Amino acid sequence: MKKVTKLLLNKIPRPMLIKMSVWARPLIYKFFKGDQFFDPIDGRSYRKFLPYGYGNQRENALSPGTLSLERHRQMWLYLQNETDFFIKNAKVLHIAPEQEFLRKFKRMRNLDYISADLFSPIVDVKADILDLPFADESFDIVFCNHVLEHIEDDAKAMSELYRVLRPGGWGILQVSDEKFSGKNIRRFHD
Questions:
Q1: The domain containing residue 31 runs over which residues?
Q2: Alpha-carbon dihedral sign for residues 188, 175, 160, 154
Q3: Other Cβ atoms within 10 Å of 122 Cβ, number
Q4: Mean pLDDT of the chain
Q5: Distance, CA of 127 to CA of 156 (rounded, Å)
Q6: Which of 78, 134, 127, 67 is nearest to 101 (CA)?
Q7: How many domains does the chain have?
Q8: Which of 9, 108, 123, 148 could potentially form a cystine with 115 if both were Cys, beta carbons 3.0 to 4.6 Å apart?
Q9: How far apart are CA 173 and CA 96, in angstroms?
Q10: What is the DSSP string of 67-110?
Q11: How far is the C-alpha of 62 from the C-alpha of 103, rounded, in Å?
Q12: Which CB contacts under 8 angstroms, 24+ apart, belong to 54-60?
């Protein structure tokens, strides 16, 4: 299983993997159903999670039902336990959305949810994070997970995210620690 997963991740273009996962997920869920691991995003238990990683693969990292990684499940729990995200009306911009988040957030009646990405086949708006096509102060919440480490001018990208964020708004911007290890991390404040 580990070799198959690694082969798929390294040989198949990401947009194609996203499209394939839509039809494969229900079958994968049935195969991995169990009681060892719990995914808070779909509320289901599994006998194991899938390995994940482009280089060294982590065992039991990828949930078969939601295709979520540890960081996604942690974000879900944070939103659920520490914010009013699931109950308060909000306009949300999600850059390069995770597939299960996109699916769930789109259905939430309290959210005016817009997804954006330059390459993804599943987003609402094709957009460059360095030149977002939205008015200033348009969004209450911004999500941008594991994108900024791939952007050469990450300061410009963060400025764009800040520009479209309303005063009093908030965001979750996750980055890989690989890019920033041993470097100073810039912080942006009002």
A1: 2-72
A2: positive
A3: 14
A4: 86
A5: 14
A6: 67
A7: 2
A8: 123
A9: 11
A10: ---HHHHHHHHHHHHH--TTTS-EEEEEES--HHHHHHHHH-TT
A11: 17
A12: 54/6, 54/9, 54/10, 57/2, 57/5, 57/6
| Tokens 């960081």 found at | 71
Q: Tell me the whole-structure pTM to 2 decimals.
A: 0.81
98, two tokens: 């995770």
**Both tokens assigned to 30:** 């049935």
The answer as to whether 145 is a domain residue is yes
pLDDT tens-digit map of 93-113? 999 999 889 999 999 999 999
Half-sphere exposure of 78 (CA within 13 A, CB side): 8
Give the least confident one: 40-49, 56-65, 151-160.
56-65
Cα distance between the two ends of the chain: 48
- In our burial notation (b when 16+ CB lie closer than 10 A, e otherwise), range 2-22 reads eeebbeebeeeeeeeeeeeee
Decide which of 50, 72, 94 is a domain's last residue: 72
Q: Does residue 189 fall inside a structural domain?
A: no
